[in-house]
Amino acid sequence: MYQIEGNIYDIQKFSLHDGPGIRTDVYLKGCPLTCVWCHSPESQPFTPDLAWMEIKCIGTEVCGLCLEACKFGAIRKGEVTRNLKGDDIIYPIVDREKCTVCLECAKACPSKGLYNTLQHVSVEDVMLKVRQDKRYYEKSGGGVTISGGEPMSQFEFCKAIAMACKSEGFDVALDTTGFAPTEHYLEILPYVDLFLFDLKHMDSERSKRLVGVPNEQIKANALALANAGARFQIRFPLIPHLNDSMENRKATAEFCVTIKDAIDVVQLLPFHKMGQTKYRRLGLKYRMNVSPPSREFMEETLELFKSYGLPAQIS
Ligand code: SF4
Ligand code: SF4
Fold it and tell me: In the chain, N or C: fewer CB atoms in 10 Å?
């Protein structure tokens, strides 16, 4: 299983929000859902992607290797701008219409200012990083969280990471949209201690319009896993005007009641704009022109979930 390969876009250490204790988050690339509020747009495509990070770029005047590397005329010099250190600098601009994602510019870039968001790795490559923090997992009751994207979309790779972690004694959480074949969830269940399971909209038609897929399979998977003994942290992102109606909040709470005994906690996640800069890195337009929900709204939602006898928290 250590030789199995797959695609990730990141591994983050010392995570405190994706399961119990201190964790290493392994982010698998690609997702069948298209949530407009996604705070990791680099996670969505299954294919390589060119990203540019301002903080790492040293500018076209001292470097400019990306301009020379691009054979498609897709990179030009931008205007003089002031960088975070207060220096005037000229940054490259990628014309996404002309870019073929050949990634020659990323190969030429000496500082990883331009980079491919896709990393092709083996399970052993992942485990080399995971093992480094073994003692933090032991001390904090933490472990490894396999996330994405939708990690179950690369099922064999995802299962092999879970199996490798379990065989080495690490706690495993799986962060999932719930949108994958039921038999895959049941197959991976013996290697997963906790499912971080998203519920986005309880109305299937609205779900289709909002995230690109209906919700019947998602609900069926939650029920099948609960019946098979899985433990859940349910994650309900509250997105203003998209899924925060009283009707949907009540319907979500009512669905949670049907698997109540399997739920450790329902995390109520207020919409935030922290992923906004990532859209710029990828040359994408950020379309969430709304404010995060108020504290009062979140408290009211918390009380609503508690009134159903659910162990809820605001994250
Ligand atoms: S990835 Fe795009 S910008 Fe970079 S060298 Fe290839 S075509 Fe040019
Ligand atoms: S090669 Fe990299 S560091 Fe150099 S100008 Fe281009 S993006 Fe910036």
Answer: C
The pTM score is 0.94
29 and 65 together in one domain: no
Residue 109: nearest ligand to its CA? Answer: 2
Count: domains in the chain: 2
Mutate to test the pocket of ligand 1, among 49, 98, 99 (most ligand atoms within 8 A of CB): 99
Among protein residues, the one whose CA lies closest to atom 8 of ligand 1 = 70
- For residues 46-83, one letter each, b for 16 or more C-beta atoms within 10 angstroms of the residue's C-beta and e for the rest, the string is bebbbbbbeeebbbbeebbbbbebbeeebbeeeeeeee
**Res. 142 pLDDT band, cuts 50 70 90:** very high
Residue 83 has pLDDT above 90, yes or no: no
101 lines ligand 1 (CB under 6 A): yes
pLDDT at 158 over 90: yes
Protein residue whose Cα sits closest to atom 1 of ligand 2: 109
